[in-house]
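@here heads up, posting the sequence + SMILES for the copper (II) ion run so it's all in one place. Ping me if the SMILES looks off, I pulled it from an old spreadsheet.
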Amino acid sequence: MQRRIFLLGSAAVLLLPLPAMADTGIQATLYKNPQCSCCEGYADYLRQNGFTVDVKPTNDLAEISRKAGVSEELEGCHTTFIDGYVIDGHVPVNVVRKLLSEKPAIAGITLPGMPMGSPGMAGEKTETFTIYAVTKDGKAPTVFATE
Ligand SMILES: [Cu+2]
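bot reply: prediction finished. Complex structure tokens:
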């Protein structure tokens, strides 16, 4: 009788739906200005790299960034949230993965502006990208990675 109950229990576990992450990738929410097209380019880039991206057009992007810890001078052109972190601008996916695997005690990371040749942006890369780590406690940003 004990054994029979055990087997039924195992079968029930197997019939449960798989966790969403198993087949749809890591969930990302990307806020952008309604007019921004390179932001869509970045959403597609994340999708190509296995993320599930929910794009939310908004007219309050600056405020969303600021509340997430990204000051005006460090803002990118869209604001993504993944796994509790803010990822602002056209941050290369290997840097996003570094953040998600290292899980540092920061609010998130940002690549300010819209550098040429960054993921989702047109053009040739002409300069080193500096990706900054930001916090919500008013500390100065630090360099998280360079590409
Ligand atoms: Cu852009």
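MO: The chain has a mean pLDDT of 89.
MO: One more: The radius of gyration is 19 Å.
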